[in-house]
Amino acid sequence: MRHTLLLRRPDHVVQALVLLLTGLLFLTAGCTEAPTVSKTAADAVWPLSFDQVVPLSTPAWQLVGSRLQSIMSTVGTRFPHITENHIWQTSGTGDWTGGFFVGELWLMAAEAEKRNDPLAAVWRSQALTWTRRLEQRITDTGTHDLGFLFMPSWVEAYRQTGDERWRIGALQAAESLSKRYTPGGFIQSWGKIGEPPYAGTVIIDNMMNLALLYWAAEEGNRPEYAQMATSHALLTQQSHIRADYGTFHLVDFDRDTGVMLRGRTSQGLHDNSTWARGQAWGIAGFALVYRYTHNPEFLAVAERLADYFLAHLPPDHVAPWDLHAGAGAKKDTSANAITAFGLLAIANSLRQLGETTRADVRAAQARRLLEALHPYSIFANETLRTKGGLLTGGTYNYNADRAVEQSVVWGDYYYLKALLDLAAYEAK
Ligand code: GLY
Question: Which residues' Cβ are closer than 6 Å to ligand 1?
Answer without folding.
Answer: 96, 205, 267, 277
